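G., the chain you wanted modeled:
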Amino acid sequence: MQATRDFSHYVRHLGSGLAHIDLAVEGVSCAGCMSKIERGLSALPDVTLARVNLTDRRVALEWKEGALDPVSFIDRLAELGYKAYPFEPVRAEAVETAQASFLLRCLGVAAFAAMNIMMLSIPVWSGNVTDMIPEQRDFFHWLSALIALPAAAYSGQPFFRSAWAALRARRTNMDVPISIGIVLALAMSVMETIHHAEHAYFDAALMLLAFLLAGRYLDQSMRRKTRAVAGNLAALRGETATKFVGTDEISVVPIAAVHAGDIVLLRPGERASVDGVVIDGQSKIDQSLITGETMPAKAGPGTAVYAGTLNLSGALRVRVSAASEGTLLAEISRLLDNAVQARSRYVQLADRASRLYAPVVHAAALLTMLGWVAYGVTWHDAIVIAISVLIITCPCALGLAIPAVQTVVSGALFRTGVLLNSGDAIERLADVDRVVFDKTGTLTLPELDVTNDVDIPGDVFELAGRLALASHHPVAAAVARASGAKTPLAGIEEAAGQGVRGTIDGLEVRLGRPSFCGADQIANDILCRDPEASVVAFRHGETRYVFAVRQRLRPDAADAIATLFKTGIQVEILSGDREPAVRHAAGQLGIHEWRAGVTPADKIARIEELKRQGAKVLMVGDGMNDAPALAAAHVSMSPVSATHLSQATADLVFLGDRLAPVVGAIGFARKALRLMRQNLWLAAGYNALAVPLAIAGLATPLVAAAAMSGSSLLVILNALRAHRGAREFG
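Predicted structure as tokens:
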């Protein structure tokens, strides 16, 4: 009796009639496997997305809701020769750790055996040209066989298993010709030893295995490091929350039982598992994940709290605004997944080349053998040459050339606060020669701030801040935030459209319009000096003050713009804000090209004009009105504080309050593009040089093994240089 399989628990409902599931897939080792799985699953009716993530051996599937059972995907993967099961991060990490440990053991066995066989081969090589008698040579060959055969049987398992699984599913992959080459080299060596020949190829087979395993272990290690970033994010997600189920009664509940509007308790030392707003309590919060600021931030009533941030001191009551998949942390995780799964133009090129590999290399080896036989050489020599062709044509270097760089760059960008949202964003970002900034929320911080705080006495500032806590107006909120006030005044009432008022020590206090507080003249004086500012007046008895409020530039905006100019990139501002405000910001930053009061259509028209002039435009914006321009630009970026629409449209999203990630990302992209091209040229150059030599019979299996393994290691080591990309723009 066969048990029923029900994986509906792992299905995520995306809305719009689509469902999603992530499956862990064993045996995915190369670009050829990726394309084969994606083609095989995409051929199923009603499947709208099938994308393999080689980093964590995961396939993401989307289909029309209700049309398919998730079990059908697992069955389809089994037909293709892959074992699959629902993806669970903890289980995937355990499997990955076990695989890494096994690869390391195989590498150790292969390397140890290769060194010992090489010690036996050197006397044979030297003895063949001196005075070694055949019996001595046979003895060394048999010793080599005793070491090589069991060592190859153990250490070759990662390749043999993969090749066998592929052949059982009536397909091929990169491991098939590798396995054939190794088995043929060993079989030929045994035959040579039995017939007392001068040469055997045990050293070549073990050396090939050792280098292939070293490359595969390095590749897996590199991918694990990048995947660890996503794993760290997942680890920040809390599985439970302490929820108020009564006025003073709390209960620890699964995060799935927490909804918007609930109130949760965040104790000192706990990480928030939800997004929300503090309604009671004082504390300090480590929110470096969201803002990039390493200094703890003060938290009190009105402070926004995000899932993943750490409460350092006091207990807080938080009203939930989003939980589970709706939090900002979940959104960042999804962006990171998109980055890792996305395909660039160069990746697609390498994928297509790798797909052609198996039939081409088998045909080349067969034709080489037949050609040499027709030329008149013995079958023995023709087979040896064919083995060299099989080994030397392994496209590991080509398959690794682009994914290796993209994997390293994705992780490196994230560590600098940038998330990739598009597969070919790196290539397009590298071409940028002009950056167009929106002003509000992009060059400036998203929140308003008081700019004349030094002119306001401390006690007045504090009192005005406590009064401002009673108002929902954004300008009053800026006063409350800047004053640090946490205790609202009692008995405050609101005058609709004017402000708020109350009584302190028998004197009336007011906060609101200048006319409401009798402070028109003071406000006019401030506006004459700073016309782009907004003003809010405060009155306590006969004492009157006016607060000037506006958005401040991001702390490193001037340095970032100066760096862009220094590297030859032109900068301009397109903003829908008022002309005085845009002029002031442009003047502070030294930007000579700016336009104020532009509409979304105007922004698109300007970007199209720049594109007609041949410019490669990077658009940086955050608002909903920026979304069309972000889509029209050559490449686009948004801050993490941007609207969801802008984030979804942008090719990259940067974290924190600084613009340094924008500048650093361009440096990374330029470095990465150079490395991708270098790797493609290295792989192509290797094949152009090595394959003709092998076909011409000028490369022994040992030389072929060394050349092929060296090319794979070379592209991986070259890809690791991508870590240093941002320093060029630092």
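The CA atoms of residues 303 and 386 lie 70 Å apart.

Shout if anything looks off.
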